Amino acid sequence: MIFDTSTVLQILKDRDFFEKIKDKIDGEIKITSITAYELLRGAIYLKITKHSEKELNVILSFISELEVVPFGRDDVKIAAYIWGKLKSKGTLVNDADILIASICAGNRQKLLTIDEDFRKIKEVYDEFEVEFLTS
What we know:
Helix content: 55-70%
Oligomer: single chain
Radius of gyration: 15 Å
CATH superfamily: 5'-nuclease
Order of helices and strands: EHHEHHEHHEHE
Largest sheet: 5 strands, parallel
CATH architecture: 3-Layer(aba) Sandwich
Number of domains: 1
Number of strands: 5
C-alpha cells in the first residue's frame, strides 16, 4: 500500500486525518522514490528560504520509517504508456503523478490518495489500483 505526496502531507498536517483513514490501510505503508523526492525538496526549500530545519527533520524521520519503492526499468515503460494515452486525449497530469502511478502499477501496489489527478490516470490505465480518500 503506497501513499502519494499529497496524502503524506495531509497526514503530517492533520493527525485526525490519519485516524480517519487507518482502517483502509492493509499491510505495510510505503512511499515511492518520487514522493520521497517531492517531500525532501519542499523541506530543503523551507530550510534554505526560512532557515528552519523543523520540516526537514520531520520529513527525514518520516522517510526513514518507510519502505521507499524505487522507479525501475519496467515502470519507465508504464509511465511512458500512461503519458502517451493521456496526451492523446488532451489530458494533462503532472509527471510526478504519472511516475508515482507507474511505480504502483509496476509493483502491483494500491495507491491511497486524496489527489483527484490520479482519476485521470486510472481512466487510461486499468492496471493502476487506486483508492481515493476524503480529507
